[in-house]
Structures
1.
Amino acid sequence: MPDQEPLLSVRGLRKEYVVHAIGRRVLALDDVDLEVSSGEHVVLIGPSGAGKSTLLRCVWRSCLPSSGEMLLCRADGQVVDLARLSDQEMSEVRDEDLGYVSQFLRSEPRRSVLDVVAKAARRGGMDGTEAVEASKTALSAARVAESLWDTYPVLLSGGEQQRVNLAAGTIRPPRLLLLDEPVSALDACNSEAVLSLVEGIAATGTVVFSIFHDMGVVRRLATRVVCIEEGRIVADGPPADVIARRGAA
Amino acid sequence: MRDWALRVENLSKWYGSVVACEDVSLEVGPGEALGIIGESGSGKSTVLRCVAGDVVASSGSVQVRDGAGAVCDLLELTPSQRRHLRVSALSILYQDPSEGLDLNITAGGNIAERLTAAGCRNFAALRSRARELLGRMDVDLGRMDDPVYSFSGGMRQRVQLAKAVANNPSVLLLDEPTTGLDASVAAGVLDLIRGVLEESRVTALVVSHDVSVVSILARRVIVMHQGRVVETGLTDQLLEDPQHPYSQQLVAASRG
């Protein structure tokens, strides 16, 4: 296999949250170096508050890094620093290369389940009809019942909303998929459906960078595990090794 | 930005010693909606009104660029050129519908007036287009020939929206589009605007003190405070991780 540029290269990433009103600073990420390459599914583990979600949010740029670089190798081979792109450029990168499913359930009000997914499809470049058809397929694959497609997400259970978000985030298979605890709110049956979906997406070439708490799931999905504690990477390597050393945390 | 449709550079407006807005610069891409948020008095409406030409800017420039790449400097237009622009390419939706409508004429008549000003003379075509637009905005077609003063606030705003998009403008300016409407009415109007922005690919500036309005309509946002731009960002990033002390106050208050 030829030597390739990593898809994502995070260097010296630092994130300090500052709340001005109370003069409080919280260092969430401290000098994080990490690479994610083609063919990988890298899972982040670590205690709550370690900085795992912050790291994914920095890559998606829903959170602004304080310093450091996040280099993404785009489809045309061009390397861009996600920390330094303009908002318009970052918006394009999100639409073309990235997918993000947050553990926090946030839905646009008064937009039907089908339209939530179709909107993501249109953003990804599909035209109207194609977007609707692709959305139906994606919702079926995520086991969201057809009877729910014309309702508003707010009327769905947490688990159902999470599956809708997953369908939207993967509608156009991204080059890099960011998943933040996508099965945390799901029962065993639906969790299995989602995990199979994630395996399927990874098998078609999408690189996955995710957070899971269940070590069984981590062992199943991960090609590599990175453990974060108190904003720093403390372990990075084969799943069995890292889990044995840090998985009990 | 390599691909802008509306560009404002160093826009300032002062009234004597009172600075309404100072050194405001922004760019909006074709088919994109940019939000401007800030409290009353932050200067956001002044920026919008300068772009619209309702207020004469003290300094700076406002340019629009069409699909063919032709650039027009709005602040250099003669009054007659500006009037032409306002019926053909640039529309505003005012917070108070009476600013954008003639309350004494009918809903259909208001729309016909806009279409006629742009050159349409065929009565049947005017009528049909008015029906189509009013229907699209959920205005009861049975009231098409009623004078607008007899309409509720929410219905007036829908008629104003229909009129504003009648000529398929390339730029749409929205000044506090749902402020003053009660919540369920506002939601309906907001959803219509959202639909218009998505379907028509119009370039839009959305001004609101209500962060939730901007979060629904705009993917990027700028924050104004005391006449100046204090922060810009992708809307979700500004809501989740605001940097400037004033932005943090604004976002925290909106969650209350």
2.
Amino acid sequence: MESSPEFLPLFSSTSNKNMQCRDDILKKLYLGLHDYFTSASITIYLLDPLTQSFFKFYVSDDDFFLSESEQQWALNFSKQFLSQHDFVPFFDYYISNRLESPFLDTMKFSLDKQTFSYDCLDALFLFLFSEQGSLNGFVFIHDWENKRSLSLGKKSLLSQDVKDFVLDMVAALDTFFVHQKITNLLVEPEDFHSQFTRKDSVLESRILELTVLNDTSNALGYALTVESMVKLIFSAMNKLLNVEVASIFLYGLEAEAKFFFRDNCLIDSSLRKSIEDEMIMALSPFLFSIEFNSDIPSDVYRFYAQNIKFDPLKKVNSSVNVPLIFKEKVLGILYIGSSRIKAFSKKDSHFLHTLSNQFSINLERLKIVKTLERSRMATLIRSMDDAVIVLGQFHQLELMNPVARKIFSFDSENVDRRILVDCFKSLGIWTLYQQVLEDKKPLLNQKIELENFYFSVNINPVFSEEGQIEGTVLVFRDITDMLLMDKIKTQRLEVISKVNLIIKSITDLDNLLIVLIEFILNVSRAEMGSILLKEGDQYVCKIHSNFPEKIRKMYRYIDGEAISDAVIRSKKLSFVDDYLHSDQVSSSIKILLDWYLCIPIVVHNNLIGVINLAKKCEGGQLSLTQEDINTLTTITNLSGTAIHNAMLFEQNLANQKLEQELKIANEIQSKLLPLELPVLPNISLAALSVPAREIGGDYYDFFKLESGDVGIVLADIVGKGIPAGLFMAMLKSILKTHLPYFNSPKKALEKINAVLLKEHIIDKFVPLFYGILNLDTMKFTYSNAGHEPVILLSKGQFQQLDTLGLPLAAVLNSEYEEKTITLLDRDLLVFLTDGFVEVKHFDKGVFGLERLKQSILEFSSMDMDAFVQKLYQRVQNFSGSGSQQDDLTLIALNVDFQLGVPELRVAVDVKKVSVKSHKRYISYIRNIVEQFAKKMGFLESDIYNLKLAVNEAQANIIEHAYFEKEDGDIIFVFSAYVDCLKISIRDFGVQMDKKNIEHRLGDLNELEGSGLGLYLIKSFVDKLHYITHTQGTELCLVKYLNKGVSHGNYH
Amino acid sequence: MEIITKKFESEPRFVYVQLGLEGDDSGDVVLGDVELDIENQAKFVDVINGIFTDDMYNVLVDLKLVSYIDSSGLWALFEGHKKASQKNGNLVLLNPTKDVKRVLDITKVSSKMRVYGDYDEAVRSFIN
């Protein structure tokens, strides 16, 4: 029997004459009932209103006590009754069959039944109420010991007498309690006060308790990890209990995991150990099959201790262990301890119980959730193509999918932890795994090799809320194929970039081809290769390796076309695999082939060559893969540009060389043409020759014959460039040697033809017109060797002067005709090359003879210098295009008897000076001008003017024709005539834009640049004109001597 | 060609520039005819620019010994004149020879620049 609650002695110590004391009343009740239910077991339970628990009085037989839960049931039952019924002092509740009643504690009942082997199952409850409508207690009556029913031998269970008796007793008890309370308050006000306060604080703590329980219960419902739940439990305990150490041991939560939580412990290890021992001891009755200290490594367990400092000197003097049980399954144990003695009340343990119930329910819920999660995850993992292994906290295998099982050759998907660890260790995965655990960081894309297979391993730790590693997921992706591909690609890229690098560094075509063929043979593993490049219309083999053209051409398609020719035609790659057995190709070949590959080299859509590759048939060799072909194509494409560049480079080099040669030849040639025209009596002459390109093939010249006549030659040498230029020099020299001695053009030409052919100087035809003018008679005898006829304009009528005859150097012993006319005053002879007639306009067609005649007529009254310029411009403008199509050479000869005495027209003095285009020669030339002009008798002011004019012209040439380059040639020819000084200034630099010159000449207000110079020139000479030459320009200045004032030496 | 410059700091402030073939022993006077042309005009331009950097914009150029001038010489004079005018100064010419005067006239330079036959008259021109 439990000790009475402490307030009960108060009742007994209180004496009141009118009042029966509590024990008396209860004794009276017990005895009265005992009289009625003879031999039955009667127990009176009184309710402590503060704790809402019962304590027993007058137990007649202690063997059949009511269990806690049964007492609880009685309490709840009475409460329910009170809430549903009007007030009665007492209520009798008879249970006829205990087995069917709600209050049954089955376990205890079966125990009772076993112990006492009875079959009597009825019992009576008498609930005793106070006038305030609350339960004071109840009486429990049965006769199980005698195995007799209570109703045995009775009409009704309770007679009216008994009921009245009980009513009396209830009233007495109630009166006593009320009275006692009042008395108590009156007699002991202080005590009352303390009672009141106590009640208050009890209520407060009760409310706190309920709040904590409610909050914790809610929070537990949301918790998804054991750790978070444990945290909540500790926190709840902290709030309510005076705990110094606390710990939770959890067991059997996961399929194979056994948890013993241990963390954050500030208590010393020996204390911890003793706590652990105590907990296990407390739990041991539930854990029949588990051996704790045998197999499981210590780090497998975890222990949570509350974060409370516990003085190591102290001892744990009070402790409570509450098992965590759900549906008869033990999940673990809660422990609280304190150094104080009797630190925990029954109330505390009640609280702990409730807490533990909540905890257990939620642990179980979590378990279900986890199982669900696991199964879902497992399904997912199972279906993955990558191998997946999930390890638990203690390296135990949680999950392994079939792919993983296959890779690691495990027999089943349940592998023992140790086997797995050993396997990982042997494969080197263990180190990686440990590293992940240590770093707490995932390891990604780690490459490992497993028996010639490559895997990319990802190891991801799974963290708990506290940041601890709960497990690890290992994913193995088979990257063997990928790596292989990568490897090949890398190799190819290396080759390609190498080629690229090399070919970029080589500009020399030959070296480039050597490197290239070496590379492609290497890559393709072929022995035979050749590179053909386009030269003109042909594709020429530039380099080969065991693959001369002779052999290459034998590899043909069935239709007879060589493979490379087909590629050249189609510009498409051709690959003949297994050449021996292919039915597309001709089999009549010298060397048996595995395959033949022909790659076109295409740059900007133009085929510039082809690469041929062939592999000899040796058997057992790998064929060319598409990858190989792609690589070769890439290399070809890359080198195509380089080859093209190299070709252009070589061509450019050749061009530069040619250009240089041309320049030299041009200089020679331009000097071959007469620098100045002869001055003839009664004849006005002008000539012009403008080549289409650097070196023209046109040639004109004047020769003074032995007879005193003048020979006029116009030739058009077929061909251009250096040979034509050189030949012109030859021609000039031959003509100079022979012409003076012939008075007949026919004979002269026959001689020249013979010389040309005899000397084998050139294999080109030379169309040439030759005329001899007798200055006395004005008879003009001419012979034409296949040249454009000369046009004569006489009295408004045109006549073409022509004779039959082949060009010179065409056939041996060629015969020529000759004709003679007599020129009249104002007759105009125009010698011109075919370019004048044949010049084309894209729309209007050729210029033609008619337009030419019209133009000649139009300009015929002009000064001859102006005439040639105008005619040239007319033809130029007609073509419309910027560039001149053909060489244009023109000689115009006008008979003018008004020109007077022939002698007057002859230069009495000529001085030729050649200087370089350097400024320092300006004053030098100035001095020459001064001396020459002084000698001629010019006035000082005129001399000054001439000096200045020449000076400005020279400066202009240096600046604008040679752009201040100092190595250009400037040739000055000073010709002194009776009445004038003619100065010709010839340069070989950039030709001046005539329009620009004219523009500048007209704009004189601005004192800038060469404009001022040109203005001065024009101001200080009487005549000025430009002649455009093959190269460069000739400026002619004329200054007349002041008439009537003659100081010169020529008079 | 020798160019001698003399600075006059009292009012009117100006620089007197003489061109000649060579300086005499004293270094104050130039002697001998000189031709101002494309070959040596750069030297003259340098001297004039040097004067302007000394913050003097009144310049009197004595052409007495310049027997010949070409377009670049004319350009040098005219450029000097333009620069001086921009700074409210004046570059004036003194005593050009007959031939040079003719060139100045023909090119209309003389209509744009002041040409004096007398030193004092030229100096007085700086006062206004």
